[in-house]
Write a structure and sequence with these properties.
By secondary structure, the protein is an alpha/beta fold. It has 23 helices and 6 strands. It has a 6-stranded parallel beta sheet with strand order 3-2-1-4-5-6, with helices on both faces. It is elongated. The N terminus is likely disordered.
């Protein structure tokens, strides 16, 4: 590369500047998704060989990084500079070949400058020395993220900071360096709410089913334990959702709607997402430990099966819905663990059958809505009739299991008037038949559980069931 004279050259860093993410962490996430066991040793090399590790991973996965999220503010800055006739240079540790694979916006730059590693010298100092050799002292403007650019900015004509804190700005002012601040969308509370899937926590209310089913035999400590189990399941579920998003980064970015998920879009950086998942998992186990060892085992087992589902099982037709039904039933088993009681076999069978039915319902809706994505997961449109048949049969079987559960109840034990629970049977028949009718018509366009929480008829049916249960317990 030859030295450019005239106006100061605009040099733009790649990581967290042009890109909303860090290439190294992107490559680690891709490696984790494809081969988790081989990735763990790589993470321990970070403190000693970041640049070399980045190059090694880029050799394997650069093609998978072509859809990395960009900072539109930086792209606009580069285009404005080019319109003024200013030379623009992308600065990175990666080779030009790898950068062209990683960044589809490379055409906005006149050239790519690869920083050559120098033993015993920090990354920032390396960049500063090599850029000064190329363009001269104050012969370039430099755009970078926060404190990472300080070693270079002291030699630049102008510092362009990306999401810099007050301490960095104060340091630049003390050095007398002209600076321009660029602020990009950051990790907002709303983004974290979406990433943690807080709206999905309603599914964990199933842990309270055993408590409600035996309310007359319970005291305040049982209520507290059930609440703790609910909290533990919410925490571990959010941790798994983050893991799932990290493992699906490449496919999410190629999806028309999933590309806007917080991690995929860069709204939440990968390191923060990883740290959040670890903290959530540790907190979930800590909360479960307040109940007992069995509760911890249930939470860990649930997390393991859920991760297995996300990585592999969700791509296996029918096996995916079987596991989903099991995960819903695990919440009821967890509620029993919180109360330190054995679950009723008929209650568990009811749960397995009804959630197998609802999982099949979700697959039917997905086949209608998602098309190609479901084909990649092993389903084709011709499968819809058999899925509907299996789902309706399973729904009817769940009602039969509920009848056997009511028949097994001893008057005065869990309920003073268990005969009142027979009133739930027609309500179950009606609701199951109705949602399957909607599914067959193509009107079921969401997760059935989420649908039930938004549908007036479903809400009314649910309230009626709760009132009947309460009446059976106190009359």
């Amino acid at each position: 590369m030859t030295t450019v004279t005239g106006n100061p050259v605009l040099c733009v860093d790649l990581d967290r500047t042009l890109l909303r993410s860090d290439v190294l962490w992107e490559l680690i996430a891709l490696s984790l998704a494809k081969n988790p066991l081989s990735t763990i040793p790589l993470v321990f090399r970070l403190p000693w060989g970041r640049a070399q590790l980045r190059l090694e991973l880029a050799e394997r996965f650069a093609d998978d990084c072509s859809l990395l999220p960009h900072n539109t503010e930086i792209l606009e800055l580069v285009r404005t500079a080019r319109d003024r006739g200013t030379a623009t240079v992308l600065v990175t540790d990666l080779s030009e070949e790898h950068v062209r694979q990683v960044s589809d916006s490379i055409t906005d730059f006149d050239s790519v400058f690869t920083v050559e590693a120098e033993a015993g010298i920090g990354a920032g100092e390396q960049r500063a020395r090599q850029l000064v050799e190329l363009y001269g002292e104050q012969g370039f403007d430099y755009a970078a993220a926060s404190r990472d650019g300080l070693d270079v900015w002291r030699h630049a004509n102008k510092a362009i900071t990306v999401d810099a804190g007050a301490s960095v700005i104060g340091r630049l002012e003390s050095l007398g360096v002209a600076h321009e601040q660029i602020t990009t969308p950051t990790s907002s509370p709303r983004a974290w709410m979406r990433e943690l899937r807080v709206h999905q926590w309603t599914k964990n209310l199933l842990v309270f089913v055993p408590l409600i089913a035996s309310l007359r035999q319970r005291d305040l400590s049982d209520v507290v334990n059930s609440a703790l189990m609910f909290a533990a399941f919410c925490l571990i579920a959010s941790a798994v959702y983050i893991f799932n998003d990290l493992s699906d980064l490449a496919s999410d970015r190629a999806h028309p709607t999933k590309q806007f998920r917080p991690v995929a879009s860069g709204a939440i950086p990968i390191p923060r997402a990883v740290l959040a998942a670890m903290i959530l998992a540790v907190c979930a186990i800590a909360v479960a430990s307040l109940i007992g060892v069995v509760a911890v085992g249930v939470v860990v087992l649930y997390a393991g099966v859920t991760v297995g589902y996300s990585v592999y099982i969700k791509k296996v037709p029918i096996a995916d819905v079987v596991v989903l039904a099991g995960l819903y039933t695990a919440r009821i088993a967890a509620g029993c663990a919180a109360l330190r009681v054995l679950p009723s076999i008929w209650l568990l069978l009811f749960s397995v059958f009804i959630f197998f039915s609802l999982a099949l319902m979700k697959r039917c809706a997905d086949i209608t809505q998602l098309g190609e994505e479901m084909i990649r997961r092993g389903y084709v449109p011709a499968d819809r009739p058999i899925l509907i048949t299996l789902g309706v049969a399973s729904g009817v079987a769940s009602v039969m299991a509920f009848c056997l559960y009511v028949s097994s109840l001893i008057p005065g034990a869990q309920y003073l008037a268990p005969w009142l629970l027979w009133l739930i049977v027609p309500l179950l028949f009606y609701w199951i038949a109705r949602v399957w009718l909607l599914t067959n018509r193509g009107d079921m366009r969401d997760d059935p559980v989420v649908f039930a929480l938004m549908d007036r008829v479903s809400i009314g049916t649910g309230i009626s069931v709760v009132l009947i249960v309460c009446a059976a317990a106190v009359i």
